[in-house]
């Protein structure tokens, strides 16, 4: 007992005086200093989005607030100033991307779900450019269901039946096609293609039966490889209208993957070790199993079973010379034998008991040959910051250490055991959940019951350790009668920033671990961390000083930069001008440095803004080349959240869709929501447009005269071709003049949608780069251009003007047009005020109230004020937030509306 107390006192001393510890001549000091250097220099960012609802319908808005923190400090990040948020469909295609300005790690935005989108399992992905250095595994990436009833004619429902044929899996998928009212589409032609892991495995066609069904049969010859995919089905309706449906395929294999994870890393002969178990089916979901451990002689050692989502654990004490296997039994009666890792004859075992709410109990076991072979080191760190370290003597086979939890921040702790040679020999993850870094939120003056359309006025009170604090909060109010909360899977600021953002791979039902703090839940969370099989800090790289390259620097603002060269050599002191007339005139200039580089810093602009960059040498020589700095786009990786994919999206949320239809139809009547009018297919034969990519405001091809690329094939220059060919137009020094306008002012030139003005020399554009030139003489075709078109307009479209990956087109010499991604204009959530403006029209809002900008004052208070809808039910208020120190808040309260 006395020795245990000494070890504990050493542990406590090392926690409370770590700054003194790192100045010691302890051999592990240098390694921990490198860790601190690494984590400080390469601090990662984490992103979490608070969404107003767990699922949506076409016609809805996805409202969100983003919280971005520095993983090193856990405080709101000041590294980046720009956040990218993307809406990705089931084809892994980005449908919408928002670029949002951040202030102290906070921003907000929304996606409008227009009826050009279809139903499906969408993903919302969020990241900063700086986060790309660590890889997309650390992005915020959530799968959400988006249903479609309001703009949908065909509803599908699928059912899969599996059978085994040798090593292959045969799948029979029944697809039913019905109208919104459930009326089957009978005798309709359907063509289909089955794709598994983007590989086509079957194609065919059929005719729906009396129930509107067809059966799609296909074989999965490699069930261990092809575990998911989709069926692309096209049904032809009576009016010959073709409707394409993308149906997720999850059930392609009956195989269950079972893995065993020894705590700390491996088994050692003669040392008891906890072994975690994880069983996952082909859908990516946990599958509970039972089984027994047998040795190489067939002797049964113990039995086991998983207890939650296919996870569990057992204790195994390997005997010398024995090899062990697990005989696993599945729910369908099948059995499978899986070899366990081979025990090592010598080594260490790290045992961590994290079920106590106040401390972590650590035991270190040594094999007999390692006794009295130098001291070990035990280190506990969180995102690169060391909060615990101590020396462990090796005089006995078992050493116990108690680590107080209140010294750690909430989140994942990485506990590492180092050998006397300072090599990591055992490691495991543990979770800390302390109240000290949580914001206590109370909603005051909230009644238990309200009436329909009643005014709700309540106060939010935020405190930490009993003291009021100022923080930034977001609040969502929904009616649970219309929006059923998904308690174990909904977005949660605690789950995301403290748990899943530090783990690679899919975590099933992450919020389950935060719904209560019982012993059972703590054990289930511990099993999750034991089976995750990943560590954030690579000690080998830290020890060798192999720090990662920073390819993407933190964005502090929007810049337009690049390099000027002439003959391949940089142009120093070159004159560079930047201007735009999108939404008003903007112009600025700068000078290139000795390396030919230029940079227009901190430019603020919205989406769809086009710029022109012009460059000259210091002696006005325009024969230079401009190369802009353009970030390559982030690729879309395959959805990792396979377990969250819903096969029958519309059916699973039909009650919500019916409720939403009422609201959308009412919005259409008021002119607040537009519906795309889809006409029956009509085949029209028309003359080919000679200027298909034109930005002509009258419409592509509507001009007095059109010059095509074919016309210019033998032309020396554009002015040479135009001169004498177009009645009423003359050309002088590369500028066109309209005789109808008196020939006094040159015609305006619009290049790929950019108004270049009349002073621009058309011969600056090589003729082989031109796709079309539309000549608009003064009159009806120029009226739309206002005073800018008074002397006529030349609309020039280049062959690259239809858009490129880099969003800019280079013209030689000395000019570039550029259309970078600009800031998304933030919209405000509409909340009616019935006392001021009584409205007899029905109110069917599914999101009752959304406010992403709720800030508490110095007393910790903020006011909530909104009106209920016409729908009775239990209204649910979800409040989340953060303060300047990174303390997190989440509070859920409810009230009744009668």
TrEMBL record:
Residues 1-22 form the signal peptide. GO terms for cellular component: cell outer membrane. It is a multi-pass membrane protein. Its main location: membrane. It is found in: Cell outer membrane. Keywords: Cell outer membrane, Membrane, Receptor, Signal, Transmembrane, Transmembrane beta strand, Transport. It comes from the Bacteria. Belongs to the TonB-dependent receptor family. This is TonB-dependent receptor. It comes from Pedobacter frigiditerrae.
